[in-house]
Sequence to fold (147 residues):
Amino acid sequence: MPFQFKVTRRVEFSDTDMAGLMHYSNYFRFMETAEHAFYRSMGFSVVLKNLNPPLGFPRVHAECDFKRPLRFEDMVEIELLVQEKKSKSVSYCFRFRNLSASPVEEVARGLVTVVCVAHGPNGKLAAVPIPEMIANQIDVAPAELLA
Fold:
């Protein structure tokens, strides 16, 4: 069962601020992109419109610690590790590694917790158990990988 996923991206000019560094908000965009690619790798999407009721996975917690900056043109690997899985939520640890640095170095670490929600006809969201077809595909990473 998957507990780890990696994606590589280039820091684009539009990702940077006036100082030429990747703006802090874009780390969250990169985490979300990695999370969505993780879901697609298992055959589903972050939005499950084909279910009744439709389901989604909004964030209920997000944080990021920055160690070193990323700059325009840097190649960055975003590693997703499943840190915790509960009946209605999943927490992901994200590690950012600058592949353009020599040696390669970890530059940031993030954490995102998502909750499975049903979209009611009135627009209200309600936390629901993660469907078995999804929950059975996700496992928690071994402790030594999360350290």
Remarks:
- The CA atoms of residues 82 and 92 lie 5 Å apart.
- The longest strand covers residues 75-85.
- The helical segments are 24-41, 132-135, 143-146.
